[in-house]
């Protein structure tokens, strides 16, 4: 019975020694991908804020507490309804 437990323990130790570096490598790749998407998301957010500011500078007023997307959507609806 001890032989079976020793065999299982040895298999576990070998497997963990092989899988640990692979797991660390996968985690590093995931972190790099998430940071790439985070920076891309920040760039998109900044562009949307800039677009909302340009629309506001053109004379179209923003309602108090209105988010950028709602403001841009309201502006586009007004522009398309004029045509």
Shape: rod-shaped
End-to-end Cα distance, whole Å, is: 85 Å
Mean of pLDDT:
88
Strand content: under 5%
Order of helices and strands: HH
Question: Share of helix among residues?
Answer: over 70%
Topology:
Layout: H1 2-57, H2 68-82
Helix pairs in contact: 1-2
Explain how this protein is built.
With 83 residues, the chain is mainly α. It has one domain (2-82). Helices cover 86% and strands 0% of the residues. The protein contains 2 helices and no strands. The chain has helices at 2-57, 68-82.
For this entry, give a set of tags.
83 residues; mainly alpha
Gist of the model:
The chain is an all-alpha fold and 83 residues long. The protein has one domain.
């Amino acid at each position: 019975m001890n032989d079976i437990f020793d065999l299982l323990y040895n298999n576990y130790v070998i497997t963990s020694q092989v899988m640990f570096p692979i797991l660390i490598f996968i985690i590093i790749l995931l972190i790099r991908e998430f940071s790439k998407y985070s920076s891309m998301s920040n760039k998109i957010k900044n562009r949307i804020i800039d677009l909302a500011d340009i629309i506001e500078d053109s004379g179209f007023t923003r309602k108090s507490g209105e988010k950028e997307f709602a403001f841009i959507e309201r502006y586009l609806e007004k522009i398309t309804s004029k045509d």
